[in-house]
Amino acid sequence: MSIDMAQFHQVFFEECFEGLEAMESGLLNLDTGDIDSEAINVIFRGAHSIKGGSGTFGFSNVADFTHIMETLLDEMRDGRRQVTQAAIDVLLGSVDCLREMITAIQQEQDVDETRVAEQKSALEVELYGSEASVEPSPVNHSIAMETPVAMSEPAPAQQHEHQGYEIAFTPYLTLLQTGNDPVRMFRELAELGELTASVNVQDIPDFYELNPEACYLAWDLKVAGDIAEDEVNEIFDWVKGDCELEIQSLAAKPVKDPVAHIPAIDAETLSNTPESGISEPAAISPPPVTEDAVNKMAPQKAEPEPAKTVTKSSSTIRVDTAKIDTLINMVGELVITQSMLSLVGEHFAMNKESQLKSGLAQLERHTRELQQSVMNIRMLPISFVFSRFPRLVHDISSKLGKKIELKLVGENTEVDKAVVELINDPLVHLIRNSLDHGIEMPADRIAAGKPETGTIELRAYHRGGHIVIEIIDDGRGLNKDKIKAKAIEKGLIDKHSTLTDKQVFELIFLPGFSTAEQLTDISGRGVGMDVVRKNIQELGGNIEITSELDKGTTISIHLPLTLAILDGQSVAVGDEIYIVPLVSIIESINITEKMLNRVAGKGETFRLRNEYIPIIRMHEIFNVQSAKASQLAEGIIVVVEGQGMRCGLFVDDLLGQQQVVIKSLEANYKRVEGISGATILGDGSVALILDIPGLVRLSNR
Amino acid sequence: MTTDTQASNSQIEQFLTFQLAGEAYGVEILKVQEIRGWEAVRVIPNTPAFIKGALNLRGSIVPIIDLRERFSMEKSEYSPMTVVIVLCVEHDENSYVMGVVADAVSDVLDVKVADIKQTPNLGAKINTRYMRGIYVHKQSMIMLLDVDKLLNPDELESIDSMVC
Predict the structure, then answer these.
(1) ipTM of the modeled complex
(2) Distance from CA of B55 to the nearest CA of A (A)
(3) What CATH code is assigned to A565-700?
(4) Domain B3-150: top CATH class
(5) In angstroms, rounded to a whole number, what is the distance separating the alpha carbons of residues A83 and A630?
């Protein structure tokens, strides 16, 4: 028992959350009235493994709770119970509650007992009908359900003391070998009346001498109730030759309860021990078991053992074995190439040059492939994010009284783990918006000649090194005039300004902008879209809206495939080398001083086609002393776009394009304005990656 | 005094000592990750002058700090003797790796914790916050630095210089 269980907790929690997700999606797909036992099985399995795991780790409150869910599901599976919408809702609520409990345990906080109790009684109402809710102690009830050998507590047993039997049951060692199972017998006894059992563990030998197939236990049993002696005898009929048995009627011999001072072993021990003889600590602890020892054990089982170390939320990832196999394969290739190269190097002569070159080419190819496969390990299917939305749509649409169908397309599109983690909140927000503002009420939809049920499509696909996530609804679309009116009202735009469609839609990304006439608790407070855009831009992506009135809205989010590698253009400013993300570069041009306009004698701009673009002189903003070019004609302007704003970076020279691995500057230092990270160049030196929006902010000061 | 502190007082800690403008300084050896020769670093723009730049240390980006400039001492040209001591700094439960430039490393000393003397109060002008104490070794004074406080990443930007 000296194994520190805490080390497995993290795995258990992860499994729990996976199980909960499976249960949730299973519940959402469950049709009312129809019993699809396979679907219920999936949910049942989820509940069952959570129950098993939490029992093992001593989270008994979780186990108790899950047990009730399991009972309910079990009845549904057997067809003893109709699958009703009410039951599904209660189960969904329980899934939420369970998730809260597990999260609380994971973070070592207290579980919200009232919430748990509420949910538990809701479950019980569903399970036993309304009368069960008046039952004082739901926990006891669940234990009783768990082990059909219903052991009532001594107190009620004493009330029936005058009626019943006292049975001293001492099986011979060979009892189990004859195929008799005491547990089954006790179960039958329990059906006759209230059964109290206590086990005598005195005869259990040392562990080394213990024969797992032998029965070393003896029991003192007491059945209370008005029972015919024949019925009791009948139960022991089969074992008469294999045990010492003494049955005494309590009515005939009304003595003081002789078993009261012998500790009652809990039901679970009882049901386990006879089969294995050793499975519970109680069975092998030195005899006789004192009441103290049992009491000491009991609280340990009841309460979750406080973990000794503060659990750090370690981030783990599950990887497809196929991916790892590819990786191992690749490393093997790399090793072969390396040994080939060292062979060439050992006796090098000029005639081996071509061999060397081909070896190096191979090395390059393998390294690149290796890099790709390693990157691949971080990739997760976007279904990790998408799978949460059916629930969201289900809940909100029923709350709003709308009929909405959610379609998921391209769930297997793979994205970087970091993207998966960070994209969730913005997506939730956008989907809430679509649900609340986009899709109309069923009556309005019918009036508009649309099908009653609205559709929201969540689609993910790859396009040219980017991943695109689209949220398409067939709702009422964005009303341009309304947006414009609102923007004018808020003083965000001028009354007479003419805006393109795209510019109008851009307006809703401005802070504090909301067109909803009424605020709901789902959306409409206007704190959302600017935050959504900011979050997506932090991921290195951008967001676009296209919308047609009464036809629907499409929001597309473009994200980089991975956050670990970036296509960059290296530029030189004096001795310094900076990397400009290729996605933000629009073009690079040479200009002369003549093309320059000065605003108020200071701010430099130049005209590029129909736009005036401000110039940021890199050597000035970054204080580079060694810069060669001070005249515009000597250097080059890199026109970049960041946060919808264009500007021209004045640098000495363009060096070349390359893929760079992003390294964090913050890991060992801190954030530096205008810099998003660092990378290592081919010669081992460090180059800094420019953060274009940050640079614009910096230059505006 | 509790037995606990007595036990720790008789403990021996090892310090790496190094030279800075003729003075001897020491840092706990357990904080030292490695010692390497000076090599050119990449300047990080808009940072205080004592942050010389960032270095590639086997794939991680490590800031390099010139202690002379950090302590407002006279600058010196980097020579082949100039070393970078790579230190592991603990701050807010995170650990950071940073390098400090020193004139030369000298020795590793076994120091009894009890023998570390408190930094004397040198008046308001001199900030002794970054010192762990003073140790006298063969008649000469060694200033023992508290690495975690000295290289606190939050304070690197806005420190009042420590005059020595």
Answers:
(1) 0.81
(2) 6
(3) 2.40.50.180
(4) mainly beta
(5) 77
